[in-house]
Amino acid sequence: MECCQGSGFRVQGSGFRVQGSGFRVQGSGFRVQGSGFRVQGSGFRVQVQGSGFRVQGSGFRFRVQGSQGSGFRVQGSGFRVQGSGFRVQGSGFRVQGSGFRVQGSGFRVQGSGFRVQGSGFRVQVQGSGFRVQGSGFRVQGSGFRVQGSGFRV
Fold this sequence. Notes:
By secondary structure, this protein is mainly β. It has one domain. The protein has strands at 5-7, 10-12, 17-19, 24-28, 30-35, 38-40, 45-47, 53-58, 61-63, 73-75, 80-84, 87-91, 94-98, 101-105, 107-112, 115-119, 122-125, 130-135, 138-140, 145-148. Strands 2-5-8-11-14-17-20 form a 7-stranded parallel beta sheet, with no helix packed on it. A 6-stranded parallel beta sheet has the order 3-6-9-12-15-18, with no helix packed on it. The protein has a 4-stranded parallel beta sheet with strand order 10-13-16-19, with no helix packed on it. The termini are far apart. The mean pLDDT is 75.
C-alpha cells in the first residue's frame, strides 16, 4: 500500500478501508469525511494536480474490478463529492478540468472509458439512481449540468 504523497491528507470518520495494492494519492488537500469509504481492487490511483479534493457523506465505494482496473485520474481543482452511495465500477475513469461536483445519492458509473473533459461540470442529483452504463462515455465542453432523478445513459 502506497499512500499519501503530498500535504493535507485527512481521514475523518469510521470504516475507512483500502483493499488491494497500488493505492496512491498525489497532491494537496485530499479530505475524506464520513463513514464507510471503501476501495477495492489493484492499481487505484488518484492524481490531484490541484487542491480541494473532498469527499463528504457515507457509503462511498470505489470498486475497480479486473486486471484493467487502473487509471482513475482526477486533474484540476475543486473536485467534490457530496452524498451517499457513490460507486465507480470499471476501468479508465478520467476527470479533466475544474469544478466537477456530484451532489445527491446513488451515483453509479459502470463500464470503461468514462471521460469528462472541460470546466464547470456539475451533476446535481436531487433524488437517487443516477446511472451511466456502457463504454466510451465522453463529455467534452463547459457548463454541463444534469438535474433530476433517475437519469440513465
